[in-house]
Amino acid sequence: MDAAIRVIGGGLAGSEAAWQIARAGLPVVLHEMRPERGTDAHKTVKLAELVCSNSFRSDDALNNAVGLLHEEMRRCGSLIMAAADAHKLPAGGALAVDREGFADAVQAALEAAALVEIRREEIAQVPDGSEGLTIIATGPLTSPALAASIRALTGEDALAFFDAIAPIVHRDTIDFGTAWFQSRYDKPGPGGTGADYINCPLDRAQYERFVKALLEGDRHAFKDWEASTPYFEGCLPIEVMAERGLETLRYGPMKPVGLVDPRTGSRPHAVVQLRQDNALGTLFNMVGFQTKLTYGEQKRIFRTIPGLERAEFARLGGLHRNTFINSPRLLDPELALRARPNVRFAGQITGVEGYVESAAIGLLAGRFAAARAVGRAPVPPPETTALGALLRHITGDASAATFQPMNVNFGLLPPLGREVKRDQRKPALTRRALADLDGWLAALAQAA
C-alpha cells in the first residue's frame, strides 16, 4: 500500500477517517502506537477504546444538537455510529455503549476491510508530504515526540487542558434499600425503559457534609508542566465544581430534578446518578464525578454517599492532559494544515470536545482526503448541518485568540431567518439540517 493515505492515531477519529477512505475505494494505512507506546489513560490496545465515559450523550435527533450529529453521521455511513448502535445500553435519553463490545466491533470492521492496513508503530514526526496524504488524529494523548514536531512545524505552542475520568462501581455493591432505578422524568432512551439510572439520594445535611469533604479531600499534585493548564468547562472535576459554591453541584451533576425517592415520595435535596457501563449491567459509571482526588480519598468520600457505603470500584477517577492545536489559525476549511497542505488533522486535537464530535471530524477528514487523492476538490457539508457548523467553527468562525474546545450545539448553526416559535426552533433547525445533508450526499453521489 505504498500509495495509501496514512492515518496516524487509532482512536475514534482515526478509525472513522480510515473507514471513510476505504469506503471511497482507496487504500489506507492506519498507524496506532499502542502497544509499542502506551498512554496514561488507555487500558487496552484496542482501536477506538473509550478512555472516559461510555456515553455518546443525547440521541434525540429532533431536540438536541449532538443527537442531530448522531443522525447525520449515520446517514454518512459512520463506522463509529454503527458500532455504537450495535452495542447500546439502557441510558434514558442518552446513547451509552458497552465499551468493550464497541471497541471490538470497530477493530473487527477495520481488520476485515481489504483496503485497510493496521500498523502498530509510533509516528514521531509530522510527515513531510513526500509520501502523499496524511491525517493526524492522535487525539488528547499525542505522543511527546509528535507533539514537539507539530509545535516545531506550526511555530505555536500547543494549547492544553485537563480531561477527567469518573469512577466505575460494581452494581452488586450498591445498597438498593436506599438507591433506586429511575431516569429523569422517567424518560426512556435507546434500548432503555425510563428507569435506566441508579439514583443515590442525599438530604440537606448529607449533601453539605459531602461538599465539605470534597473541599477538604487530598488531591493528586500537579506536575510543574501541568500547573497552568486550564480545565475544560464541560468536564470539570467534582471538587473543582464544589469550590464554586455550596449549591453548584445541586445545579450540576447532583441536580435532583425529575426524580422521586420511592421511600419518601418526594424529590431528594440532591442525588448522585450512576449509568450502566457494560452490556452485562454489572458496572455503573458515576455520572459527572470526574476527579483529581487521591484514590484513598475517593473511596473514603464517595462511600459517604447513601447507597454507596459498601461500594467497590472497578475503576477510580483520574485526570489526563489533553492537547489541541489552534485550528482557526492553523487549518484551512478542508482541515489541511496551511503550512503543509498534504497533512490534515482530525478529532480532539482540532479542538472539538466529545466522542461524537471527534469522530465527526474524522469522518470529514477521511472524506476530504479521499476526494483530494482522486483529484477532486472536497465539497464540505452545508453550514446548516451539524457537521458543517462544527467544521466551520474550528476552521474559521472561532476566534484564534481565545480558541477553546467546543461541543456541538445549536448555537453553531446559522439562524433560520424567519420567525419560529421558541419551542419549535430546535426541531426546525434539525429538519433543515437533515434535508440539507441529504441534498449534499445526493450531490456527492451524482458527482462520483
Explain what this protein looks like in three dimensions.
There is one protein chain. By secondary structure, the chain is α+β, with helices and mostly antiparallel strands. The protein has 2 domains: 5-158 and 325-447, FAD/NAD(P)-binding domain, CATH 3.50.50.60; 164-321, Elongation Factor Tu (Ef-tu), domain 3. Helix content is 31%, strand content 17%. It has 12 helices and 17 strands. It has a 6-stranded mixed beta sheet with strand order 6-2-1-7-17-16, with helices on one face. Strands 10-11-12-13-9-14 form a 6-stranded antiparallel beta sheet. Helix 1 packs parallel to helix 10 and helix 3 crosses helix 4 (99-112).
Give a quick precis of the structure.
Helix content is 31%, strand content 17%.
Strand content: 15-25%
Q: Strand order, biggest sheet? A: 6-2-1-7-17-16
CATH topology value of the largest domain: FAD/NAD(P)-binding domain
Question: How would you sum up the global shape?
Answer: globular
Top-tier CATH class of the largest domain:
Alpha Beta
Largest sheet: 6 strands, mixed
Indicate the percent of residues in helices.
Answer: 25-40%
Using the 3D structure, state the CATH architecture of the largest domain: 3-Layer(bba) Sandwich
**Count of structural domains:** 2
Number of alpha- plus pi-helical segments: 12
Give the ordered list of helices and strands: EHEEHHEEHEEHEEEEHHEEHEEHEEHHH
Mean pLDDT: 92
The low-confidence runs, each spanning 5 or more residues with pLDDT under 50, are none
Tell me the Rg in angstroms: 22 Å
